[in-house]
Amino acid sequence: MALFSTLLTHFRFALLIFGLLLEIQSSLLAQSPVSFFKSQVTGTSLSKPSSLQFGPDGRLYVSQVNGLIRAFTLARTGPGQYAVTATETIDLVQKIPNYNDDGTFNPNVKTRQVLGILVKGTPTAPVLYVSSNDPRTGGGNGDLNLDTNSGIISKLFKNANGNWEK
Questions:
Q1: What backbone torsions phi and psi does residue 151 show, to the nearest 5 degrees?
Q2: Residue 22 CB neighbours (<10 A)
Q3: Distance separating alpha carbons of residues 23 and 44, to the nearest angstrom
């Protein structure tokens, strides 16, 4: 009799779990499906964007492969349509010097390759974390004098004067 009671308890537990799973599944199916759509932004031109993220200040931060970061203030002009009302260009990462593998400064390489950005902070004090490296690739010359140890993450923030600092 004890075995039957134990089996009955396990069966009731299994039915309870099965019922909960059915309830969860039906509630998930009742929710509207996730969908993605393309929006158009007018009033800007970008050169090879590499990463983008909305910041806590509501602006859209877009990094470019050449090391520039643009902060766009957007206004909605219609369904899926936005216009840039203001642009701030942040060039601190682009100005990071590049070196050869032997440690010598290379004045000929004047940009940085931005791989990605992470925007944190507050609406009044956004903070950007930017990953970048020397933009040179081996190409047909092999791997001569490239700065293969150049990958860094930079923290950019606004100072008390409202200017960006690295």
A1: -65, 125
A2: 10
A3: 48
